Structures are given as structure tokens and as C-alpha cells.
Amino acid sequence: MEIATHSPLLELLNGFIVELRSAGLPVSLTENLDAVEAVKHIPIEDRETFKYALAGTLVKNHSHWKAFETVFEVYFSLRGQEYELVDGEWESDDTATGEENQQEGQVPGQGGSQEGLTQEQLAEMLFQALAKQDRNLMRTVARQSVQRFAGMEPGRPVGGTYYLYRTLRNLNLEEVLDRLLTSSADSDSESDFLEERLRKDEYEHRIEELKKEIEAEIRRRLVADRGVEAMAKTLRKPLPEDVDFMHASREEMVALRRAIWPLTRKLAVRLARKRRHGRKGPLDFRRTVRHSLSYGGVPAEPKFKYPKPSKPEIMVIADISGSVAAFARFTLHLVYALNNQFSRVRSFVFIDGLDEVTDFFENVDDITEAIHRVNTEADVIWVDGHSDYGHAFEIFEEKFAKDIGPKTTVIILGDARNNYHASQSWVIKDIEDKARKVFWLNPEPRSYWDTGDSIVGEYSDFCNGTFEVRNLKQLEAFVENLV
Amino acid sequence: MSYRFNEVNKVREDLRSVEYLADDGIAGIVYLADRLQKPILVEGPAGTGKTQLAKSVAEMTGSRLIRLQCYEGLDESKALYEWNYKKQLLRIQAERNADESNSWEDLEDNIFSDEFLLTRPLLEAIRSDDPVVLLIDEVDRVEIETEALLLEILSDYQVSIPELGTIEAKQIPLVFLTSNNTRELSEALKRRCLFLHIDYPELEREREIILTKVPDIEENLGDQIARVVRTVRQLELKKAPSVSETLDWARTLIHLGVEHIDAQTATDTVNILLKYRSDIDKAIKEFSSDEDLNSPVSN
After folding, report:
1. Contact B8 A59 (CB under 8 A)
2. Would you call A480 and B228 a contact, using CB atoms and an 8 Å cutoff?
3. According to CATH, what is the number of the domain A250-278+310-481?
4. ipTM, interface predicted TM-score of the complex
């Protein structure tokens, strides 16, 4: 009985979970069952709660939220109270926001609705929606403008971003923002700078909301046109931890940068923990006897001395040449983050020359400034600005290797594409002899290693570990394995 | 089986009555946790009310709150139960003096009984007769091996003590685990929990929180505070202001008799909101420089 009544929903849920799995989210069987149980308690009409209920049972990692949300919007976009998939859905929605529409003399109904509206009227509606932050009006504007400007045709094999771009171009939001700002400044003459600033943020926030509405509208139409599975597949994007450093888009780079912070904190915690619980020291006789008093003189609980924790020292040596440009950008962020977590980090960058950049990162609150200084001031070019690991390592050996002690962990970042120069791998061997650990992180897929001019193999003989680190997941695995 | 809550909206209203403003996600998950009898793993930035949620739920359901604060080196003798050595030793000694006739088996049964058991938070939550809310705070601080201690209690609500057998829960406690995400929790643990991420609140919610939590605050000022905080959070900071810091700031402004925040007041008091020198400098720059007015905020 229960199953019978829920069966269409269950079917939808199944498809939904299959799609989540294909998007890379790890959904276990237990979690699947939990979700099935959860939807019995939360009605689908309560859309937001329904969404959170599914997320709570299925998604156990906050960085997966975005991926989850996308799939959710696709699968349940045609459901929920304001999204009912019945004939004449347009009417039901337009009447809800009817007041504004009626003054425009608009006829509700698909296709017909925009004829009555001139461009100016739509712009006015848009302005009003943003000025008053009227949710319903925003949604109506979103629908109208998508219908009008996106030029969506059934079966057209174009992605959602194209339609989004077309719609936004026509709405001219920059201008609307200016207008909003001037009109609110007029109404309130005694505003100071801060107030203006806040107001601008507020309007920008509203415009973001509108964009989201437009995106949702486009997605909804695409789903209606192409079907749920196909759409979900088109919209599938790699999870943040799977994004390749080398090919990350600007937006993804921002997300990655945010993700690095917790990661370095993890690294710090890991190293600290290792220090404290690594090994037990010799018996602490005094404390053992002292403690035995509570057991009537029986030394029931032996106490040990713990080794004095030493502060970890880290040396990062990073390739910032063109071949790893994207990775290098990321690397510098990592170095910066490390600098903030550990008191003793020394950082070096190289191309065919090598320079210490520790100072650039110290007491700098703006990472872009630090990166700029690294790129302009660091003396990393020796001859022609093509990677020469051998020469760079020689400089390192000459100038800095003496500072490596038994507590130092050396992390080298680079693809080891040496342009057929001499490898000078003896330097790495020397470093390894002196340092606690030497790790090499390579941003190239393992299958490319030691092909062409890559000589990572020659170096890795002398490293305590060589890791392929192309995405956050791999970087995280490296951090986890550090112990 | 009786549930604590009848519907999601009721949860939200009840939470509101104890001055905790929940959004759809929070209310929904709390409701679901009760229905599915599952623990909630609450994650999110520091100072967004993760621990407070457990406290508020306890308050609104009239349950006792049992709290287990996690730390590195926590073990079962601190989390689950421990035998009271000293008492056991005394018992044995007393026995020896009295007479020799008692067999070791009797004695063993005797010293491994309830009387010598020291209950720790987890066991206490299970054995309690009255309804309890169990809060396992900052679970990410324990080592990954120690997490295993929690698994039995989280999935089956029972504790196995070799000498006594399995102790089952008299009532199913509502369990909250909080994590600051300093490390990845194990899959096994996550699988057993509902996951709830509490982020910094949206503008409207934050404003409401300010108005509820800070007595005598003008709506105008509350609104402005919420908006300033949102702007500040959009900057790239080492540590974004938490809700509790927002509230501190609001209270300070009240004490200072501020009715309207201008750039000067904001600059003077921003050190309550932000704790790093570099963050403060950055915020002050944002508050006052005019040239930034026309360039969009980077986010």
C-alpha cells in the first residue's frame, strides 16, 4: 500500500540517486534507504525542506552541495507548488503575481504573454522588481525575459549558458544597477559613503538573485524540452575535488582557493598530531611512582616521557614556469596558505633560476599582491626562461641547502619537464640525506611521467614520495597520507 | 512509537520560542532526525550556532542536555564508561580481611557490577530514563580510530560492556554531533548521520537574529548591522565574522549609544567583528575609500 502510493516519487528518487552517483557523489545503500524513508515524512510540496531532507540523507560533504543542487533542480524542477506541471502552468503563476501584470494589460498564457509588453515596460518591471525586491515579480520578469530574449527553440542542441548569455545581454543589468543606485541616492540625500556601499551590495545581491531565477527558468524549459536524464547529463560538472588544476576555469579557481584554506589547516593539525602522538618516550620514573600512590603503592599505570614536540619546518620549492602556469598559480596560493599555518615555512620559486620568496608572503594580507611580487621581483630567470630543474636545484644546493635540518620537510612542486637539460638529481639526494622527508608533487597525469622531457623518475628515486596531484582530491589524499 | 515533533513548522516555531531562529534546512533536518531516529552531524564555520542548536532543541523539548566535549586523546574511559579501580581495590582488600571463604567468582561478579561502574556521557545518555539530548561536540578533534567508539551508540543506541553485556537505550536520545571540519570524518560515521551544514545566515535571518538576541535595538540599526556584516563577509578574509561576533558588535554599538553607523563608527568598532590585523585593515579600507565605489566587489 505504502509502496503503491509512493511509487512514482520513488521512481523519480531512484533516477535522482543514479544521477547523483554518475555525477560522482558517493551515495551508499544505507543513505539511499534513508532518503526513501525521509521522503515519506516530508511532503514534496514543501520544496525547500524536501531539498534539505534529501541533502541531509544523501550528501555528507558540503563541497558537494552545488552538484547536488543542480541535479535536484533538474529532477524536481517540474515539481513543487509553484512549479506544477499541469496545463496552463503559466496562468496559475501569472495570476499569483497578477497585480503588476494586469496594469501592463498583459494576457496570461504561454507565447501570448510577451506581446503586450514593450521593451520599456519590461525594463520598468525589472527595475521595480529589483527596487522592491519583489520575489514574485522577479520570477515573472525572469520568465518574460527568457521567453523574449533567449530565443529558445525545442530540440536545439545549445547549452544553457548560451541562453543565459543572450538573456542577460538584453537585460542590460549594469545600466539597471546604475539606475537603482542613482534613484536611491536621490531619495536619501544624507547618505554617506558607507551607506552607499551597503546599498550597492544590496542591489548586486538582488541582481544575483534575479540571475538565479533566470537560470532556473532556462533550466526548467530545457528539462521540459529534452527530458530529465539528458539535461542532468549536460549539466554534469566535475566536483570541486576533481577539478583539474591545469585546466581550471576562473570560477573554479576561486572555489579551489577557498578549499585550500581548510586543507592547510588539516595539514597543520596532521603534522601537529604526529608530533604529539608519534611515539612514546622512555619510562618516566618519577611520575610513575607518584601515580602509584593512588593504587596503594602498586605501580599499576606506568607513565612515559613524551618527546618534546619540535616545530615542523617546511620548505616549498615550486616551479612557476609557463608549462605549469595554471598549476603554479594554485601552488602560490598553497604556499601562501601554508605560510599562514606554519611559523616556519620557506618558499622558493624557480624556472631556470631559483629565488627565495618567503618574504613576499610574510605579513602580506593580499595574496594577489604577493603573487604579483613573485612574478615581477623574484629572480627566477637565468638564461631563457625555460624550465631548467638541474640549474635551479644547483642554485638551491649552493645557497640554501645548508639550512635544511633533520626537522625539515621539503615539498617540491613541478612537472619535471626539464627541456633536456642535465637533471642534477644528486642535489635531491643530498636534500633527502639532510631533511626529514622529501615529497614531490607532480601536476601531470601519471601516464605522462617520464615521457618526452619529463624526468620525474630520476628525481623520485631520492624522494620519500612522489605524488600525482592534479586535483583537490589527490592533494587531500597526500595530506592524509602524510602521517 | 511517539515522536517529539508533529510537523516541520512546529519545530521552527518551537525553536523560535527559545530564541533560536532556524531556516528551512535546520528545522527540516531536526524534524527528520526525530522521525528516522538518526543522529545529526552539524558542520559549518565556527560561531554559526552549531552547539547552540543542540542546546536550544534540548530546551524546547524539555530534555536534559548531556554533553561530551571531544578532544585529542579522548578514550572510552572518558566517553563511555570506566570501572572504578580504586573502589574495586578497596573492595578486594576488604574481602581479604573479612574471611577467605568467598570464591573468586563471587568476588568477580561483585566487583564488575553496576556499583563499580562509572558512567560517562555516552552511557549516561543511553541509560537515562528521562528524555535527553546528547551533544557530541567537536567530534573532528578525536583521532579517526576513536571515532569507532561512537559507531555502536549512533547506529543502534546501545553500548556493549564485556563484563555486563549489552546495555540498550531506554529511550532514543536525540543526538547532535558538531564538527568544524578540521579533518574528514570517517565514512562509517557520516553514513550513520543526517548531515546538516549551517552556514552564515542570510541577510534576513541575521537581521532577525540580531533583533531577537539584542534587547532594545532599533530595527533600523539591526538592519544596518546585518548589511554591514554581509558586506564584510564578502571580502576575502582570514576569518569572516561569525554570528556571535555580529551580536557582540551590535551590543557594543548599543552601549556606545550609536543609532546610525557611518564610516567612522564602523572603522572605530570593527575590531570587535574581526580578529586579525590584516582583516581589520582590509575592512577599514573598504569602509572608507571612495575609489572602490565603482569597481564591483570581487567575490
Report:
1. no
2. no
3. 3.40.50.410
4. 0.83
